[in-house]
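The following block was generated as part of the benchmark described in Methods. Ligand: adenosine monophosphate.
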Amino acid sequence: MSVLIVGSTALDSIKTPKAENPRLLGGSASHAAVAASFFSPVKLIGVVGEDFPKKYISLYRKHGIDLTGLQIEPGKTFHWSGEYELNMNNRRTLLTELGVFEKFTPHLPAAAKRTPFVLLANIAPALQHHVLDQMARPKFVVADTMDLWLNIAMDDLVKLLKRIDGFVLNDSEAHQLTKEDNVFAALKKIHKLGPKYVIIKKGSHGSILSGPKGCFICPAYPLHTVIDPTGAGDSFVGGMMGYLATARGSVDANIRRAMIYGSVTASFCCEGFGLNRTIKTTRSQIESRVKELEKLTRF
Ligand code: AMP
C-alpha cells in the first residue's frame, strides 16, 4: 500500500557551528517522502516555484516518488533558513520566505484521493484539513505539527485532532499544547483531544507512543556525531508511515516496529546536511541499525 504525504517542499539554508550550506532540498514533505520511500510507494503533494532546481525533481524521481501532486507555480520556492547552536539541539529560524507557499491550495489528483495511508506533515493545519476533505476514507491518518501553528492556528489544529488517527509532536510542543511538564500526563490529555495514537518525540532521547495497546518507549539510534538534525522528525514519521503501509497486519501489531524503522531512518538524516546522507542510505544499512537497536534494548 502507498502513503500520501503533504507538507512543505522547500529550499533550506542551514548553518551549524562547523559549516554552512545554502539552498539544500528540504521541507517536511521532502524529508518524510524520501524516508517513506525506503519502504513503500509515496505520493507527494506540495508546491514549488519555477526556481526549484531540476536536480531536486530528479532526486525525488530516483526515489520512485510520485510527483503528480507536486504543483510548479510561477514565483519562488518556499525558503527556510536556520542556525544551530554548538550543542546541535537548539535551533533558531533566521528566515522564512513563503514564496509560492503563501497561496498554496493542495489539489489531489484523482488516484491520490484513494491512498490508504496519509501523512499530514508539518504545514498549516488549514491545509491539512483541506487535504483530508479530499480523501476517500483513508485507512490511517497521521499529522505532524510545529510550535508556529500552536501559536497562530490553535483552533484549526484542535479541530484537526478530531479527524486523525495519530498525532506526532515534540516534547516542547506537547508542553505548549497541554501545559503539562510530565510527558505521560501530556499524552493522556492529547488523547482526550481526539487521536487514538499519540507520539511525543524527544530528539536524541527517542520517542514515546501511547496507543490502544499502551505505551512504547522507542529509542533513538545512538550517534556519536550529528552533522545536521534538520528534518529528523520528518524522517522519523515518514519512515514510520512507509513501514506501516507495507507491513502485513494491523497498525496495532506493527506500530512499535514501524517507530524503530522511523528512528533508524532519522539517524541517517542527522549524519549529513539536508538530505545528503539519507539519499545515500540503503535498505540493508537500515536493517543493520535496526538489529543493533534490538540488541541495545533487549533485556
Ligand atoms: P524539523 O527539523 O523536523 O523540525 O523540520 C525542518 C523542516 O521544516 C525544514 O526542512 C524546513 O524547510 C521545514 N519548515 C520550516 N518552517 C516551516 C513552516 N513554517 N512550515 C512548513 N515547514 C517548515
